[in-house]
Design goal:
This protein is α+β, with helices and mostly antiparallel strands. It is built from five helices and twelve strands.
């Protein structure tokens, strides 16, 4: 970074998001300042892009195919590290800020997510499954982008609002902010957000991982018990 380049100072409204029973989602405010080493107001010279990513996870995507009038699983593709959540907000259209190569390097949009397919796969098939995964998660509210989602105030302060839906995964989230000028990323900074379950939900999560056998037996027992109870109640009516 050159001496005359801007410096980013990022902040997040919540460094920790607690998921309790009845959690309906929340909104994160990602904000900060664009500082110029010479003391000038630097914001007018730069565009800002904020990328919020959740923990990665392996996933298998399957295609449905109609065979003899029945929808059945056909081809599938595995991804080693698909982000569980991905959101982008920018001060202008990313296509007007950088070229596709730069956008791909920094993942500046849902079209540029690095999904890491597993094994050897035909490029056309890879593109088809990648688009299918992104489309599915966009409909679930887990992947999103807002090309006018960042506002810059008085050429110094920037802010973006990104909503987390109720079905977000727990884990460490990273909010990376990029300052861009003349098609180049000249500064970046990262802030972390922890999403975790608390209360009874946290107990259930720990039990399912540390005592998986007992957790499974209890779950099956409760299911059978509820089925028997429901049967008796309907029989009386």
């Amino acid at each position: 970074m050159g001496q005359r380049d801007a410096i980013l100072v990022p902040e997040v409204s919540q460094s920790e998001v607690q998921v309790r029973q009845g959690f309906t989602g929340t909104e994160l405010l990602l904000y900060g300042a664009i500082l110029d080493p010479a003391g000038r107001r630097a914001g007018a010279q730069y565009d800002i892009v904020v990328v919020l990513k959740g923990p990665t996870e392996p996933i298998r995507m399957r295609e449905k195919e109609r065979i003899i009038g029945i929808w059945m699983n056909a081809e599938s593709s595995d991804f080693r590290s698909a982000p569980s959540f991905f959101a982008v907000a920018s001060s202008n259209e990313v296509s007007d800020i950088v070229d596709d190569r730069t956008a791909a390097i920094y993942e500046l949009g849902t079209d540029f997510i690095q999904l890491s397919p597993s094994g050897v796969i035909d490029p056309e098939k890879q593109t088809r499954f990648s688009r299918g995964l992104v489309d599915q998660r966009e409909r679930q509210g887990l992947y999103k982008q807002d090309m006018n989602g960042v506002t810059i105030t008085e050429d110094v302060l920037y802010q973006a609002r990104i909503s987390l839906p109720s079905n977000v995964s727990t884990g460490k989230y990273t909010a990376e902010t990029f300052a861009i000028t003349d098609g180049r990323v000249i500064a970046s900074a990262i802030a972390d957000v922890e999403v975790k379950k608390v209360g009874f939900e946290r107990f259930v999560e720990i039990a399912s991982k540390q005592w998986s056998l007992i957790y499974g037996l209890v779950a099956v027992t409760l299911s059978i018990g509820m089925g028997v109870l429901a049967g008796r109640l309907f029989a009386r009516n």
